[in-house]
Automatic annotation (TrEMBL):
Organism: Kutzneria albida DSM 43870
PROSITE patterns xrefs: STAS
GO molecular function, one term: anti-sigma factor antagonist activity
SUPFAM superfamilies noted in UniProt: SpoIIaa-like
Name of this chain's protein: Anti-sigma factor antagonist
């Protein structure tokens, strides 16, 4: 679903063994509420151990509020007994994850195929 004033587009897809949330655009203070809402919706429908896969492959920017949102949902998923997996293959996402050491906390893979093939 897209907000006409937002620089972020969020699309949810139910795969056979995962709920996929795809984002396109910029994840900053103005757009994190939209993604937060979509992640809460996805997490509330998942039956463990089905993961939530967050596809960041088309994200052009992630700010500190976006990183904080990822941490919040990583914790929430853990409490629910599900895994939050990230798909990212470019520096706009990988560099901030690496600089904050969040790449050691999350399962980060470069392709959707890899995210869906991980044994839970």
């Amino acid at each position: 679903m897209t907000d006409p004033h937002s620089t972020l587009e969020v699309v949810r897809e139910d795969e056979e063994h995962a709920v996929v949330v795809r984002v396109l655009g910029e994840l900053d203070m103005a757009t994190t509420p939209l993604l937060a809402q979509r992640l809460y919706e996805a997490e509330s429908t998942v039956v463990p151990p089905t993961p939530v896969v967050l596809d960041l492959g088309r994200l052009r920017f992630i700010g500190s509020t976006g990183l904080a949102l990822l941490i919040e949902h990583h914790r929430r998923c853990a409490e629910l007994g599900i895994e939050l997996r990230l798909v990212a293959d470019h520096n706009a996402v990988l560099k901030p994850l690496h600089l904050t050491s969040l790449d050691t906390i999350f399962t980060v893979v470069p392709t959707m195929r890899q995210a869906l093939d991980i044994e839970g």
